Amino acid sequence: MSFEPAWRGAGPRGGVSGTAAPPESGPPADLPPPSDGPPGDRPAVPSLSASEVYAALGTCPRGLTPAEADARLARHGPNELPGVGHRHVWRRLLAQFTDLFAVVLLVSSAITFLAYLLGQPRDPAILQLALAILGVVLLNAGIGFAQEYSAERTAESLQAMVPHTCRVLRDGEPRELSARELVPGDVVVLEAGDAVPADCRLVEAQDAAVNNAALTGESEAVTRVAGAVPAGPPLEARNCAFMGTDLVAGTGKAVVFATGTATEFGRIFRLTAAAPRQQTPLQRQVAAMARRVAGVALATGAVLFAVRVPSGQPFVDTFVFSLGVMVALVPEGLPATLSVSLAIGVRRMARRHALVKQLLAVEALGSTSVVCTDKTGTLTQAEMTVVQLWADGVSHAVTGVGYAPAGEVADAGPVRELLRAAALCSNARLVPPKGRDGWRVLGDTTEGALLVVALKAGVDPAVEEARTPRTAEHPFDSVRKLMSTVHRAEDGTYLAYVKGAPLELLARCDSVDRDGRQEPLTDASRAEVAAAADGMAGQGLRVLAVARRRVDGPRPPIGDVESGLTLLGLAGMYDPPRPEVRDAVDACRRAGIRIVMVTGDHPLTAEAVARRVGIVRGPRPTVVTGVQLDALDDRSLNALLAESAELLLCRVAPEHKMRVVTGFQQRGEVVAVTGDGANDAPALKHADIGVAMGASGTDVAREAAVMVLLDDSFASITTAVGLGRSVYQNIRKFLIYLFSHNIGELAPILAATFVGFPLVPISAVQILAIDLGSDVLPALALGAEPMEADVMDSPPRPRRERLFSAAVMGRILFLGGIQALGVCAVFFWHIHASGIPYADFTKDLPVYREAITMVQAGIVVSQFFNALAVRTDRQSVFRAGLLSNPWLLAAGCVGIALMAAISYAPPLQAVFHTAPLAASDWAVLAAFGVLLLAAEETRKWVLRHRRTAPKEGTR
């Protein structure tokens, strides 16, 4: 590959924009080394001339010598960002044992084992209990570890943002080196399509333009120059290119002035690394619940122990009894059930193109009340598209979206010359589909849109370029706001084509094309053109004007080219919204979710897109720029976030995004942040839920986020919110299920204590068998309940709302009270029917073993009917369909089958001290279960009646 055109004289498309290079000598030895500190400590290279840049950075146009480069590499370190650290597997596994429930049970197992060792004689039942408790902890830890390990997708993704190789001059020789070997003072060569390997100051540039979207969020290519520019914010320096961006047009030569973490990209990395990962609402509530439940369990066990010891009960037996009470209250299977249920939500979201990296993020997304969304690539397709043309007083609509030349121009004949001129006055290239990639534009996206619309009208840019080859070019700059090219026509004459801002171009025109005829441009004609341009701009379109003229010779001066022009017409274009976004925004509105656009783009562009997708519907939204945000103190910002129903934040930096997210969180909002660029990463990590784009997003954004949209569709967010809400509802269902039967386990123990019965109605080993054998599977099946149809028709729950709300606690007490009455009834019915005094009962009496078997079986059977009852909150389970969740029915049958084995299998009878039940016993238990279901259906009927009665009365 030849590198010469990148830094030597002008090619056929224009001259070098920059100052003359200094003599090609080696780097001066007496100059201070370039700074490797933060951006604010670096040399002010944007305001220096090219020769001064070389001097300031201790280099020359020939680049560094290999020895000097090696010395600087040793001093500054490699041009890379620190890797993202991840916990080792053993740390992940050990973390499963730090859950408060696990700690309580581990301590209980240790104390029980100690009681076994100290007991004389040693009771094997106590050893069985210790091992059973330990087995529960190990099983739950294994399930939780497997789910977390399989759900989290982690990678060293920041390195993927940095190009692997680059072209560098070393001692005058072009070399292709690893990007990590770059050092300040290196001279790099850039061509269209290259990723910028470090922060560089351009010293030569030919029609260069960069895409800064990864850093600033702006979708438009920005022209780069080689001359000095006034001092200002680093990212606004028009003669600099930054790591993580791309050169989309032209060529250039640049001097590296910052590498690694000293780059602008490194600054964002430091912000991302410093931002703490926020706890989700569910994490906070489960932690609080665990503390309360553990406290109640320990206190209850201690009180019962203190009550029974003075009554003359053996110390060890009393301890085991109290431990059984504590075990009954601790929902041992909750952590594993919660993890697996969230994992079910993860798999459901994955099928809807939303990849969740952390299980708890599933529920957090469901509680989202504010979405701060980026614009480019999130709401829009990031593909500029011409939608309207104007020529000779007539507008021509254009169909089709994106870079694929599919669509048509209405009445294309009168605008073909306009499109021919626009295509010839462009440097972009349209790349056909290849493999999985669709149509792409190499170069400026605005010019790419002009090429596409030309093809739609039957104008082939390649054919026209061959027919009228270019002989000269005057690149676009921000002062003229024009670009012009000169071409040799087939008759040997020369034509100039000019495109640019309508007002600037119109001022240089003295005639207008009317159906192929050149007519003078009168004041009335100028007003007509200006009105047409204003009309397009009012629709949020970017408007370009196109003109031509005949010139003398192949390289006329710019003054001759860009004066006395004939106006051909106007082209209006925009970055089209994704077609599914508007419905998604409407769904968020119905769900009470506020959407705030946070973008680095221009306010007018942001408002136009916001109106198209439905984020803005009122006449006057609140539009705030980053500069205005800087002027607001915290109180003013809080008022802005509270009072602005339709808020657009434009021209914002990463620090602004983080401040806005923090402001919303301080107001009690659950904030989701969407984005695709590296500039979004700090806010993505700081948010309650960060959502990155999977296809078009940068790897640094995907690493910072906890959820990745595989299809880049904003609509997937709406679906994910609905699934998140469904997961939260299902979590509440299995919590009601778990804690209501815990009451059924605790009630007979308390009853036996207060009536003076010397033995436990249900042992700790039996409770563990219930909790793991017939609890977990039904709870998991409840976690797999499908999403209800109206889940997105209610506002998000308040951030401070407890998982155990008053309604949930009332339902737990209602269902648990019924189960408690039932199991107490069957136990004492068996005890009293025997006629044996309480004091004469021993563990080996058959009637006692039958009674405790009835208690265990009663709890298991009632669980089956309880699981059916909690599937719905207000709707009758019969209307929802008893067979609509077959996994729940299967899980209940497994629990009953296991109970039957414990009752009838001799080996299990020996472990659990149970006895075989008669058919009449099972019939009594089944009737008791039906009674529980009937009571719950009655409660739902009353609830529905109370809520519908006022509505009926107002009709």
What structural class results from the helix and strand content?
alpha+beta
The major pleated sheet works out as:
9 strands, mixed
Rounded to an integer, what's the Rg over CA atoms? 37 Å
In DSSP terms, counting alpha (H) and pi (I) runs of 4 or more, how many helices? 33
Shape: elongated
Low-pLDDT runs of 5+ residues are 1-41, 153-163, 949-955
Strand content: 15-25%
Total count of strands: 26
Helix proportion range: 40-55%
- Report how far the terminal alpha carbons are from each other: 81 Å
What is the strand and helix layout of this fold?
Elements (H helix, E strand, L loop, with lengths): L49 H7 L9 H11 L12 H7 L4 H19 L5 H28 L13 E6 L2 E6 L8 E5 L7 E13 L1 H4 L4 E3 L16 E2 L4 E13 L5 H11 L6 H28 L6 H15 L4 H18 L2 E3 L4 H6 L3 E4 L11 E7 L2 E4 L18 H9 L4 E3 L8 E3 L2 H12 L4 H7 L2 E5 L7 E7 L5 E7 L1 H5 L2 E6 L2 E4 L2 H16 L3 E10 L6 H4 L3 E10 L6 H10 L3 E5 L4 H11 L8 E4 H5 L3 H10 L3 E4 L3 H13 L4 E5 L5 H6 L2 E5 L5 H6 L2 E3 L5 H41 L8 H10 L2 H8 L22 H29 L11 H24 L7 H4 L5 H19 L1 H7 L6 H35 L2
How would you describe this protein?
Strands 10, 11, 14, 15, 16, 17, 18, 19 and 20 form a nine-stranded mixed β-sheet that branches. Strands 8-26-25-24-9-21-23-22 form an eight-stranded mixed β-sheet, with helices on both faces. Strands 1, 2, 3, 4, 5, 6 and 7 form a seven-stranded antiparallel β-sheet that branches. The model is unreliable at 1-41, 153-163 and 949-955 (pLDDT under 50). It has 955 residues and is α+β, with helices and mostly antiparallel strands. The chain is elongated and about 125 Å long. The protein is 47% helix and 15% strand. The protein has 33 helices and 26 strands.
